[in-house]
Every structure is written in structure tokens, then in C-alpha cells.
Amino acid sequence: MSKKITIFIVIFMAIMLQVSFLPNILPSGVFPDVALIIVIFWAARSGLNATWPWAILGGLMLDFIYFWPIGTNVFSFVAIVFGASYLAKRFLVADNLSRFFIMVALVISGTVLNESLTSILMKSALGETVNFQTLFFNTDLLLKIIYNLLIFMAIYVPLLKLEKFIAALNLRLKMAR
Amino acid sequence: MSQKLFSQKRIKFVAILAACILLVFFNPKGFFNPIRGGFLRVVYPFQKTFYLLSQTVKNTADFLGSISDLKKENENLIRENNALSSEIASFKDAKNENENLREQLNLIPRKKFNLEASFVIGRDPQRSGSWITIDKGKSAGIEAGMPVIVSEGILIGKVAEAYGNTAKVNLLTNSSSVINAVDLETKAKGVVRGEYGLGTLLDMVAQTDILNTGDTIATSGLGGDLPSGLLIGKIQETRATQDKLFQQAIIMPRVKYSNIDVIFVIKN
After folding, report:
1. Out of B108, B116, B125, B143, which residue is the most buried by the measure of CB atoms under 10 Å away?
2. Are residues B258 and A29, on separate chains, in Cβ contact within 8 Å?
3. Distance between CA atoms of B233 and A23, rounded to whole angstroms?
4. Is the pTM of this model over 0.90?
5. ipTM more than 0.90?
């Protein structure tokens, strides 16, 4: 239970950071996807089964707070979690540096996929035409990737520590039983 | 083979995605609004706290960046203060003249507005930035459709959805935004439409009307949903529609929407 509460708090705080803190700090109008990065991290490390409920919850909270059609972010997050866990299973290696770089690749592809999926779903739902040229070839996407990578690098170590903390918490609970 | 293809994991994955697609495309309008309203009520204190924190960080960064300029700025301010004291006298005259002109142009005097000041606590995550979230809602008397301005009577949008303590404001650049407008210099009338977050366009202006680059565009008050005389922007470029029936003009907004921190909702 306390593990679930910890993960919920982390995702909730990430969403608040993404929605109400970073947009006021960054003047460019492009903001990083903190919640997405956390979900990708957990999907790559803990697998699909452990992550998909959190992907749904995170996506749902973002849909509510962004006033987007319900399901837009959920769809994107679940698809990315599936992809990240699938790829991580096949490519994750033992040494920490290679693991870090594979995570970086997952964050980049996750950012592109999230941007594309949410834009396509939003525009289709609103009956607008999707321009694939501007979707993939624009400076905003590049800036978003850079921001996401910076955020990922900043939170990678704290997330590893949190993972250890949760594991220790689980162990303590098991021993108490 | 079929066992691998229809594994429980894959079935679950496809079912979730299918449910999302159904929700996105077949969700009845406003069906989730009560849940969204409840959720926004719960997250409101957190959103506000994070917003205030971001303001503190921003102000501290700005302050640290400007320390070296403080002495110079102080000298400039003293000089400016002296100049401003003499200007106040001339502004008193201008104020009277302005009030007379507003009356002649049939504009609502600003002091007649019942304004509700509010902070921006959330923004559209897409660069197009077609909406903002503000920290006042139904509890402060804010309702959908109310016009939203910034300090100098510059219209930036309308309240789209109001919840307990928060409200969503659709900016003029939002594709659903349509506002009756007038060219203050030539009196040409038209509608200002949002261009999918990319800008605003004055449309449906008769070919017989005159539009000049640099003209000021304001609300016309037609339709009665918005007061007249709220500034929208200046004409940047004019052109004819494809069918040559009407004229269009690209409007340059008076404010940069991504920099707005404080707004005012006109309640009456």
C-alpha cells in the first residue's frame, strides 16, 4: 500500500511540476513531459504489468488537467509503456552506462511518439486535418526532446534511489509479516 | 502461435487502446465534466502552490540576473521619476480628453467593468497555446462566456469552462474563438477568428470596406456577448478571401499570450 502511495505521489507531483511550475519558468512555450519520462523509466525497469495502471492514471490526470478529450494521454502513455517495456526487455544490458543510454533512446522515441499520438488524436477528434510535415519537422519537437532529456538526466539518479527505497520498503513489509 | 498472438498481455493492451479510442471519439460533450470539476477542485491548491513557487524562482532568477544593473537602473529611475512628475500634469488633461473620446466612440468606460483579477496557473502544453487555466472559478462568480482582458483593456479570450475554483479560458488564437470586431480607424466590421493556435484573423469584412495595415482592431459589441471597445490587436497584413467575396486581415495581438501571468475577467 505504501509503495502505491509513494508512486502516486511521485506521478502527481510530476504532473503538477509539468503543468503549473515549468510553464512559468520556461519562456519558450515548449514544456517538458515530466510524467511521461517517469512512466518510461518505470516501464523500462519494472515491465508492462507493473507500469500500465500508473500509465493510465497519469494519462487520465493529464487529460483532466489539460482539458483534452478523455483517453488522449491515456492512449499515448499505454502505447509508450508497452513499447518501452518490450524494447527494454530485449535491449537492457547489465552495465549501468549502456542502460542509461538505452533509456535516453527510449525517452527520445517516447517523446516523438507521445507528441505524434496526442496531436493526431486531438486533431482527429476536433475534425482538424493533421499535417505530418509540421508534426515531425519543427523546432518545437526538437526543443521538447532536449528539455525531456535534460529533465531525464536530472531525475535519473533520484528515480534510481526511489526505486531502491521502494524495494527496501517492500522488504521491510514482508519481514514484518 | 495463436497462444502467443492472443496472450493476456496483448489482449489487455489492445482493449485499453480500443477503450481510449472510443472515449476520444465518441465521448458525449461534457460527459466527464463533473469528474473533471471534482479533480480540478482537488488539485487546485497544489496547482496554486506550484505556480507561486515558480513565480518565486522566476523572480529570484530575474533579481540575481539584474544585480549588476541595479545601480545604473537606480540612477535612471531617479531621472525618470523627475520627468514623470512633470508629465502627470499633462496626463490629467489627456485623461479628460480620453473620457470624452470614449464617450463619443460609444465605448464602455473601463471603470464600469466589474473585474475579477486572477492568476494563470496552467497553460496549453502545445506550443500553439490556445488556452490557459486561471485560479478563479464559479465560487468567484465566474461563468462560461465571460470576456477576459489584461491590464489595459486588451481582450485575450473568453471563459470556456468554469469549475469550483478554476476556469479554462480559450484565448483568441483558439480555433473555436469567434468574436465580432471593428476597425477603429475605418469602422470596417468583421469577425476575429482563432487560427488553430497560430494567430488571429479578421474575416468576413465586406470588399467595400477599407482595411489598412496598422489599423487597430477592437470588439464591436455586436451580438451582445462582449462589450465594445476592447482592444484585440493591430492589422499586420490584409488580403482577399479565395472566392474574392470578403477581405481578411492577419491580426497582431497586443500582448504575448505565453507571457501573461495576471488577467481580469469582466463579470458584468
Report:
1. B125
2. yes
3. 24
4. no
5. no
